């Protein structure tokens, strides 16, 4: 729980009273690897903070899955579009490693917004964090080669190779596993 408080503390001061209220709304969840946090067709009910672990977002497919995002320790995880709109998700969210989350339900987040002085700021900061990751990802797909996306991914998340299978990384950067092997040979 201290990681989430430290995360918010980097951005804004939170009174002891606001923190006490917020803390009561948080639920700690420990999950094994390969656990579906959300299945396509379900509505996201939580905004979660990853205390420890790795998560991937992917589109299920008949022949192959398409991984389009990862989140790691000290980041937020949520099918945020489903969470905000209260509509079913079109993608899955799955743990890649044993993962510990601090999660807040949609209802409890609304209570935090209403009852605390910094609730709206905390919500905005979480939303901005999710938006910036999504924006960087979209620009990367438009402006960079697969090799540049691969190199950028590991400069931002150097521990990625230890946590994420190469087939998911290949899907994420938009290439086949064979093409990723060629990229890795070329740069090593």
Automatic annotation (TrEMBL):
SUPFAM superfamilies documented for this protein: cAMP-binding domain-like
A Pfam family of this chain: cNMP_binding
Gene3D superfamilies in UniProt: Jelly Rolls
Residue ranges of domain Cyclic nucleotide-binding in the record: 29-114
Organism superkingdom: Bacteria
Protein name in UniProt: CRP-like cAMP-binding protein
Species assigned in the record: Taibaiella chishuiensis
Lineage: Bacteria, Pseudomonadati, Bacteroidota, Chitinophagia, Chitinophagales
